[in-house]
Amino acid sequence: MPVFFQHQINEFTRLGIWKIEETESFFKGNVPQHRDVTHPHKRLQHLAGRFLLQYLFPDFPYEQILIAETRRPFLPDERYHFSISHCGDYAAAIVSSRGRVGVDVEIPVPKILRISDKFLSKAEHQLFTIPFSDKTPGHAVSENQLPTLLWSAKEAVFKWYGEGAVDFRQHILLEAIDRGSETISCRFTKTDTSLQVHYREFNGLVLAWVVS
To answer: What is the pLDDT of residues 135-150, one digit of tens each?
Structure first.
């Protein structure tokens, strides 16, 4: 069973990461494809993410999934709130029967430092000591870890909000990291909401999620 990580957040909310080792035919036998995805690996990610929804909650009606104008998948009756993310050979999903959720999974890569000024404010650069637009090739992999975590946290908040039109530098403000509790304090200025972003750092993988 290729479940890489599974977490029962509370009695209403579950989270999981699926390591994709199956063929496309396995998923197509279980999951309807909701949109035309032409790239083979992206199609496999798409199917694995939806398969994971029903793995987490066996009665999840993924045949009822609709896509909003903001490209957010949702259920019209909101029986479940959910979010899906994927990268490489991994798909992550979070499902709740109670409130909004958002999840993001990432593999740290050197590009993240080069684009960090596009999603981090000047104050965040200084707070987390992230250099601006580091274009030096070949820097240590560990230097990619923290900016990837910060990006993943903001992406999880963006998905939690679900309404689009979010400026990552202005609307999602990260204020502190608590390594002990593996949380990041965040203020979402569009709705003046304080959030706790939870995270995990695995060997070569970063995961962040938000629960209302």
So the answer is: 544 444 468 999 999 9
